[in-house]
Specification:
By secondary structure, the chain is of the alpha+beta class. Helix content is about 30%, strand content about 25%. The protein is built from five helices and eight strands; from the N terminus they run E-H-H-H-E-E-E-H-E-H-E-E-E. It is globular and about 40 Å long.
């Protein structure tokens, strides 16, 4: 199957919300309970329109223009979460001393394992490098952990992030530093 990457637009937001829920339920079911996924969809997972407005969020489309994956990178301090997440910090990062944030990757389960996530990640890293960044960090879901490890990200100890309703969800902070030529 062929996929084309393009920048996401604000008009894509309703489709992205559906995609994110489908991805979280379909690909996260082996690692998270239904209740954890539903609670995470209230803020920990979701669309961050700041990424779209900054021009750093991508979608992958099929030939028929169906959006089947999304992901991006941020030059702001917020590490993860949707527009509704309370702990947001929209201040700008210094590319010379701080890592770019790899953010909000979701793939439709019917299109998983075709290299779409890897393609979006490569585009994000390339664009962030062009913007002056030489390192990256992210907050991986348990299903996403496998992709990021294959792409050279190093895991820190897992955390349990508090969700609505007294639930928690396990995330793994990860980082990657580029080897710069002498």
């Amino acid at each position: 199957m062929e996929y084309a990457l393009r920048l996401a637009t604000l008009e894509d937001v309703p489709v992205l919300r559906e995609l994110i829920a489908r991805s979280a339920h379909g690909l996260g079911a082996a690692d998270y309970t239904h209740a954890e996924i539903e609670a995470a969809l209230q803020g920990a997972f979701g669309v961050d329109t700041a990424l779209i407005r900054d021009g750093t969020y991508f979608v992958a489309e099929t030939r028929t223009r169906d959006i089947v994956a999304c992901g991006g990178w941020g030059r702001r301090r917020t590490l993860f979460g949707s527009d509704t997440r309370a702990e947001r910090d929209e201040s700008w990062l210094d590319p010379q001393s701080e890592p770019a944030k790899i953010r909000a990757f979701f793939v439709d389960p019917a299109h998983a394992r075709y290299g779409i996530g890897r393609a979006i990640l490569a585009r994000c890293e390339s664009d962030a490098i062009q913007a002056g960044f030489s390192s990256f960090e992210l907050m991986a879901t348990l299903p996403g952990l496998r992709l990021y490890e294959k792409c050279g990200y190093v895991a820190a100890p897992a955390i349990d992030y508090a969700l609505p309703g007294g639930l928690t969800i396990r995330f793994v902070p990860m980082h990657k530093k580029l080897r710069l030529a002498p």
